[in-house]
Amino acid sequence: MSAYLPYWRVPATGLWHSGEVADRSVNDILEETWARITTVAVVRGSTFDTKHRAANEVLVTVRDRAAIDRLRVALRAESSDAAIMTPGDPTIALLSERDLLASIQLVDGYVRCPELWEGDARLDDPTAPTDWLASVGDAP
Which of 75, 78, 61 is nearest to 131 (CA)? Predict the structure, then answer.
């Protein structure tokens, strides 16, 4: 299922975000981003603080390419009209070296990524991100 998402390319990251109309799925948006990811940091809470990185409660940091690629499969999702009003926890920070590309929040079977798409996308497998986290480190 493809989502009708407005987007624009954010100059600092080269990623897409709200602005002009496009017919793009959440998975297509993530696919464009994935090749640039060198590190994934999973932190407790609903944000990844780029200015005060030591303030983040890091659950696990992953640099292994195979594990990062397994996360892409775990995050497969379909766009939805959902706008869940609870904060996400944990947050998955997608990094290129030390630059934050996007932060994905896990929210009750959905994923939220304001840097890449509007609203909350429904996970194809709601347990897959937690299973991935358990396979690489500590599950929340």
Answer: 75
DSSP assignment letter at 125 = S
Q: What is the pTM of this model?
A: 0.78
- Going from the C-alpha of 66 to that of each of 25, 91, 114, the distances in angstroms are 23, 20, 26
Q: What's the token pair of residue 111? A: 């994923």
Domain boundary assignment for the chain: 26-136
Contact present, 77 and 110 (Cβ < 8 Å): yes
Residue 49 amino acid letter: D
| HSE-CB for 40 with a 13 A CA cutoff | 26
Which pLDDT score, from 0 to 100, does residue 20 have? Answer: 39
DSSP three-state, residue 103:
strand
Q: Which fold has domain 26-136?
A: Immunoglobulin-like (2.60.40)
Ordered DSSP codes for 52-66: SGGGS-EEEEE--HH
Q: Which comes out higher in pLDDT, residue 116 or 105?
A: 105
Q: State which amino acid sits at residue 47.
A: T
